[in-house]
Amino acid sequence: MSYILTFANTHAAIFAEKAFLQAGYSVGVMPLPSGIKAGCGIALRVDDYIASSEFLKKNNIIVAAVYQTSANAHETVYSEVVL
């Protein structure tokens, strides 16, 4: 299971990616999935939501929304996580 982080703009997404990488977190940059209607078009995929959330708060990085991913027989489903 992974989590998708969305941002208000591309600058914020790139800034968050650099911060995660410098801190040693595993993070992936991806286009915003079509099943998600929030954000700037770039999203980050992380595996550990709790550690990521604490890191973001500690570093004053604001996300637009967080989505948990799960797969069913036909597609990937995105469920928004309440921040």
From TrEMBL:
The record places domain Putative Se/S carrier protein-like at: 3-68
Q: What superkingdom heads the lineage?
A: Bacteria
Please report the name of this protein according to its UniProt entry.
Answer: Putative Se/S carrier protein-like domain-containing protein
